[in-house]
Amino acid sequence: MIRCIRGVLAAALGLTLLTASAQTAQPNWPTKSVRWIVPFAAGGTADATARHIAQKLTEKWGQQVVVDNKPGANTIIAAVDAARAAPDGYTLFQPINSTLTVNQFAVTKLPYDALKDFTPIGMIASVPLIFVANDTLPAKSMNDLVALAKKSPDTVTMGGGVVGVQLAAERFMRDAGVNVRYVAYKSGADVTKGLLSSEIQSGLDGVPAYPPFLKSGKLRALATNSPKRIASLPDVPTLNELGFKNSEAPMWHALMALAGLPAPIQKKIAQDLQAVLEQPDLREKMSALGLEASWLPADELVKLIKTESANMGPLVKDLGIRME
């Protein structure tokens, strides 16, 4: 009889523990503010993306989503910071595609693993890159730049920030058959400063970085590497239109949490994030900046990371891109 009672108590205790465990795995998340790490300085493409989405999530969750800018070292500083946080969903990280694909081939002793150290939530945006120039460059169009670079190799200067942007620039130069002197900057903001101060003649960055300077006439747009023309810049041709068929390579942004994030929290973040990205007013705001809200769920994002990594490895080696 005693054994029978003990068995019933043990079964009841087991059921209680399972119930408690399920409740623990599905908390009323979030119950406090959420930190959203951006690997670039305020005012850039990634920052604009984060702040638009963070505001919507703040409204949805009833908890503040705080954007924390951690620029530097080709997004590695932010990635390492994010990888040290607790896997509870209260720290989110917004890498760009080069953080997850190119860095592993271009950076010596990368201190994180894109798929082992993070839990993917999903892709959130795609960002076309745009080639711009200042008045020190006599070329008025992309074809003019190519003609000038062919006539006088290594005389035209082009600046870019992260290694992914450099890869896009190098791919363009290879496809166009020209030698342009590439100048690596720490960030897109530094590229803009270099353009405005005439340290360089041309530059490459995400579309949202340049509209104010294009409108004021301080810079002029040459081309984008998007699949089609951008609604906010309808007069700017794409590289494809100009005949550079292999140069289409928009940047994309993802959202990651830490490895070990409980599945219910991952699911909630993903569902809420997708719902926010489908809101027409958010999509319009992002489109006006040259961004596109592009949702891709976690499993598809992982496939994309693996596919791009397989393609980028040989390309990085072939182009000789190396970041110490």
Count of individual domains: 2
CATH class of the largest domain: Alpha Beta
Q: How is the largest sheet built, in terms of strand order?
A: 7-6-8-5-9
Fraction of residues in H or I helices = 40-55%
Q: Distance between the terminal alpha carbons, to the nearest Å?
A: 72 Å
What is the subunit arrangement here? single chain
Mean pLDDT: 88
CATH superfamily of the largest domain: Bordetella uptake gene, domain 1
Q: Could you please say which CATH topology of the largest domain applies here?
A: D-Maltodextrin-Binding Protein, domain 2
Radius of gyration from the CA trace?
Answer: 23 Å
Most strands sheet: 5 strands, mixed
Strand content: 15-25%
Structural class: alpha/beta
Along the chain, the helix and strand elements come as: HEHEHEHHEEHEHEHEHEEHHEH
Overall body shape: globular
**CATH architecture descriptor name of the largest domain:** 3-Layer(aba) Sandwich
Describe this structure in words.
This protein is α/β, with parallel strands linked by helices and 324 residues long. Helix content is 44%, strand content 19%. The protein contains twelve helices and eleven strands. The strands form three sheets. The protein has a five-stranded mixed sheet with strand order 7-6-8-5-9, sandwiched between helices. Strand 6 (157-160), helix 7 (163-176) and strand 7 (181-184) form a beta-alpha-beta unit. It starts with a helix and ends in a 5-residue tail after the last helix.
